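Friendly challenge for the regulars: who can give me the structure tokens for this chain first? No prize, just bragging rights.
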Amino acid sequence: MTNRAPAPTAIIADDERLMREQITFRLREAWPELVILGEATNGRDAVAMVRSQEPDIAFLDIRMPEMTGVEAARAIAGECHVVFVTAYDQYAIDAFEQGAVDYLLKPVDPERLALTCARLRERLETQGEKQPDGMDVLLEELTRRMGGASPAARPREYLRWVQASVGSSLRMISTKEILFFRAEDKYTRVQTEQIEALIRKPIKELVDELDPEEFWQIHRSTLVRVDAIEQVTRDFRGQQIVHMRGSDAELEVSRSYSHLFKHM
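First reply, four minutes later:
Bragging rights claimed.
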């Protein structure tokens, strides 16, 4: 009778609950045998979890409070395989191309995750080094590109995706696809060129979480993506109306925000 190899194990560290849930869901699809031992909301807890649970793999968000994913990776170097998770940070992607460790972009793409899982399986089966050649160099480069370890020194990371309801299903929608957000009753409408979805997050919270260079508030109930504005007209009352590319919606600009289109 042959002894069955123990199931591979992992932890997930990310300060966004929805992101942890998404990674867990995608991993269950891509690698059913993988056992998730626990979740951490910051780098310090991730390090403690690795030390206590001894997982084979740690999925680490790069930007986390108390201790970044890069700092956590440095602390647990050699103790488990590391996969970094990043939200469209080109500085990090460039560094990852060195190939020392794998990385995933938020929101996690199933095909890309399948490739990562295949690489991890191969490393586990061949008993590959848990601190591959070039790891130290990569961590130093990431730290340099992030501007050091101080949270105050790092650029702010804005919302890059939303989890929204479309009928009876949930969809991960990149903010790059969103034309506008508009408050409607107890929900906020999320409009893309293809779909209309709903979230519970109010406009006032979205204002703080979205990049102000990408989204403008034009009304207390409306946020629009700047590069999706097709034209701005005036109705018979002289009220400014925003027309979005790929949508028939006519979005009114309140007097408080009329300065955004002051040349009209």
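The helical segments are 17-30, 43-53, 69-75, 90-96, 110-125, 135-145, 203-209. The chain has seven helices and 15 strands. Your move, everyone else.
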